[in-house]
Design a protein that fits this description.
Helices cover about 30% and strands about 20% of the residues. With about 450 residues, it is α+β, with helices and mostly antiparallel strands. The longest helix is centred in the last third of the chain and has 20 residues. The protein starts with 12 loop residues before the first helix and ends with a helix. The N terminus is likely disordered.
């Protein structure tokens, strides 16, 4: 349902009903700015997202070195290979896509992290961009194994101690020779005295595909008087509707934490961070989130889930993960709006989450946001189609501080002018109370613009 509009708007209801892109196109029809938009550091031809945030200064996380190189998975000049080398005794935990057609690197990591002694003494992580090595059968699995073998020989460890991740085009088998021929160069760079923040910045750029800015986050906390550092990078712009992880995310801390504890903490925080963002409703074959603990901080080892000494660490880890997740949405392909969707009054947490994701994933809601149209009738649609418990006569909808609907009907205080002005903001909050209980959930998303179609229409070119 759509609220009544004053005659002064100068735009017919039929025009708005049948052309959700009209307002966005009108914005795009303004005279061109003579100053060209800055180009993104990833794929040529992409402009940096208007919602981009600066890459943070990342301090030294003990027990990890990072280097990048150009393996040649892309035609243009750019680094597309990233290698992390970890200190002996590093713990690791991961969460991965539940997509039924997982990639060879996902299979490799899951198998070795879930096995006996899994996640103990992980020594390396190898990431490539430009080739997903997904839906490649036995040749893809063999390429992943050979990559781990080559790195293991150079680092003096077992194959199982090398984690792998890939991103790029599905259905292309990884040419592992491109990685093997660059490992000597990578080793030299690992041994170089490169500032930590430069290493992290280069790594974040090296894993980009259609990303328009590198994504990183950093925090410090205390464990029994010792300063502990947490740093992370992520990549993702499209095909973002994570299911147990995100596109790619790698987080390293110098705390000393047992793999079982890392696994529990990662599972705890992934639900409200990486699994609470969506760009287009599509889940990747390669979704991977890996958390490493090097133990180099000097803090005491934590070997029990629920140890009270982890309280500050847990808060800091959640902050890093949520920051990275938000950056994925800010870099949603073609995005111009960063949108927070909150559902209150749901029958259960699961119901609240399903309702919030229905709103956040709705193309009709997202195109209205792109057109800066507070078409709350589309929110009503997205709520009702879920078949979740909803009390129609208690339903309330707000855009920011502005009430659009209350008690299942248009708000008597609805002000079209104020609502339209709010919709021009780059960051928008949508809050819906469904009146069926006391549970809440929050999901972050972005708008859907014609740039999304343009970017994905020539993704492989």
């Amino acid at each position: 349902m759509k609220p009544p509009k004053p005659k002064s708007t100068g735009r017919s209801s039929l025009e708005k009903a049948f052309d959700p892109f009209t307002a966005a196109l009108k914005r795009g029809a303004k005279p061109a700015d003579p100053t060209p938009a800055p180009a993104a550091p990833g794929k040529p031809g992409l402009e940096i997202s208007p919602l981009a945030v600066p890459f943070p200064v990342i301090g030294t996380v003990g027990g990890v070195e990072i280097a990048t190189a150009r393996a040649g998975f892309y035609k243009h000049q750019r680094d597309d290979l990233v290698v992390f080398r970890f200190a002996r005794g590093t713990s690791c935990a991961g969460v991965f896509t539940r997509h039924k057609i997982g990639s060879a690197p996902v299979d490799w990591c899951r198998r070795h992290l879930d096995g006996d002694e899994g996640g103990k003494d992980v020594r390396a992580l190898v990431v490539n961009a430009g080739c997903a090595n997904a839906f490649t059968g036995k040749p893809g699995a063999d390429a992943a194994r050979r990559t781990a073998s080559e790195v293991a020989k150079r680092f003096g460890c077992r194959q199982r101690d090398v984690m792998l991740a890939s991103t790029g085009v599905i259905g292309v088998t990884l040419d592992d020779r491109k990685i093997a021929t660059r490992l000597g160069e990578v080793e030299t760079r690992l041994d170089a005295d490169t500032p930590a923040s430069d290493q992290w910045t280069a790594a974040a750029r090296g894993i980009m595909t259609t990303d328009t800015f590198p994504k990183g986050s950093y925090a410090e906390c205390r464990i029994e008087g010792h300063t502990v550092r947490i740093a992370g990078i992520a990549k993702g712009s499209g095909m973002i509707a994570p299911d147990m992880a995100t596109m790619l995310a790698f987080i390293v801390t110098d705390a000393d934490i047992h793999p079982n504890v890392l696994r529990a903490m990662l599972g705890l925080h992934v639900r409200t961070t990486f699994n609470s963002v969506t760009v287009d409703g599509d889940t990747s074959t390669n979704d991977t989130c890996l958390l490493f603990a090097t133990g180099a901080s000097g803090a005491p080892r934590i070997g029990r889930v629920g140890d009270r000494r982890l309280k500050d660490f847990s808060r800091a880890l959640d902050g890093v993960m949520l920051d990275l997740a938000h950056q994925l949405v800010r870099d949603g392909e073609g995005a111009t709006k960063f949108v927070k969707v909150t559902v209150d009054g749901a029958a259960s947490p699961a119901s609240a989450r399903k309702l919030a994701k229905s709103i956040a994933d709705s193309p009709l809601v997202k195109t209205a946001l792109a057109g800066e149209d507070a078409n709350w009738g589309r929110v009503v649609m997205a709520v009702g189609k879920t078949e979740e418990p909803v009390d129609r006569d208690r339903l309330a909808i707000r855009f920011g501080p502005h009430v659009a609907a209350v008690d299942g009907a248009p708000s008597p205080s609805y002000d079209e002018a104020r609502m339209s002005a709010y919709m021009k903001n780059a960051e928008i909050d949508i809050t819906v109370d469904v009146g069926a209980g006391r549970a809440s959930a929050t999901v972050w998303t972005c708008d859907l613009t014609k740039r999304y179609i343009e970017i994905n229409g020539d993704y492989r070119s």
